[in-house]
# Entry
Amino acid sequence: MKKSVVSKEYQKLQKDIIRLQEQWKTSLDPDCIRPNHDKAAMEAGVPVTALAAIDFDISLFLQWIEDIGELLSKYQPELEKVMESIKKLLDEETAKRWIDEAFAFNHIYFASFAEENEVDEWIPQFLAETLLRPYLQLTAEKVQDEIQYGVHGAGCPVCGEPVRLAQLEDGGKKVLHCPRCLAHWHDKRITCSHCGNEDHETVQFLTIEGDAAAQIQVCEECKGYTKVIDTRQYIVKPTSAMLDLNTIHLDFVAQENGYKSAGETKQTN
Amino acid sequence: MAKAEYVKFVDVTKCDGCRACMVACKNWNDLPAEPEAFQGSVQSHANVTANTWNVLSFIEHENGKGNLEYLFRHSSCFHCSEAACVKVCPEDAMHYTEFGTVDVNADKCVGCGYCVQNCPFDVVQLATYKDKNGKEYKKAQKCTMCVDRLEEGMQPACVTTCHTDAMEFGTKEEMLKKAEKRLGEIKERFPNAMIYNPEGVGGTHTVYVLAEKPSVYGLPEKPKVPTSAVVWKDYAQPIGKMMLGATSMALVGAFVSNKLFNKEGKDHEEDGGGSHE
# Structure
């Protein structure tokens, strides 16, 4: 039995990044995020972070860039120079833009930024996303108590990330977890979390032989999939981010079988 | 790096005798079914066997008030800290894992059965297999505490399937604390209740909260590593190996002296070589 296909070294890097993000989050002033508790918007599926007022601290941002640069060059020394050149590019305005575009998941902006400044394409968006997460996670912590259920098809109620990971918790409850902002909310066991389909004939499961704790819930209506992991079987519960990474083989299996991480909305007349 | 020491905590007072642990064990470890004759009670097997690593025992017990108590116990390997089976194994097939549990290395096991004779709980048994020439051979078999699951950070199969949470799995410290707490809760209903974590075998990695005295459950009150096992492993075996060493040295000496001083032997060897052609 092998639980993860991800190399130990990459897992270690990710764990280090998660640890950094945890530190960064605790260094944030809790009042720098003021979520808008608009019930109507939440019920309509608008992610909380879209309406929250976030005071963005440029000095922290630059410090974090320093931290992550140090970590990355520990794993890949050739990145040290690249990180130096990126630090020079980041003035307050660019940093703000990065956060905004990371939140909007604007990969076109980051791709063109990388091209203009002659750095590898993955670097700007990776950095911006990594630095955005502590803000998202703090927001999630603040509103967690108000989130019981999500809106099918709207993704994570806090950050809008498409649903792809659920855990079976005490009593066999299916709890959806967002690996991005770490928010969690409930859903019915036999329900497609993308389109809300409750028909047991069309909500099905793919299982991997020998993988006792994992199944992929797939929906024939919207072709969406959700990884469902029975973490009750784990000795120590991993964080959602690590769990998502370590079950990446399930994403491959689902996608090779024609399912998508975000379900399709059926067009009706 | 030594990993945390884990303990399976079995609270028999929560068990409802559903036997899902037996099924989960068979399923995970791919063990064949063993049809059994009716034993006169709901219990399926008289004891654990080489292919049934855990058995739910059903005990009809008359309690102090003259009432019938139906007692259930998930019985399997105790994974002793000072395990007699490890002590007596001449091939080091029985060994401690990094989690503190006891496991059999099937490649090393020669099926001598010393572990079977010395286990204070009658847990280890020999399974019979046939090789491709139809020759029978034996290997010791017992609960592995699902070591293949532990290595991947998962709990044993029996624990994950238990629907009444009669079984839990976690660090030794945490589980012993839970056992103490539970004992306090049930003392009123079961005055003889106790924690079964016998010291004679250095403590175990399956710790029970029993509702009655161990003997009621057919368990030894004070199990210990048999003296014969200690004598065997700590004295007889080393001396035997020393003797073997002495014998080998004598043989080598004889060989060398023969080579050096026996010229006739050399002639004889040359003759022998020629006759083969």
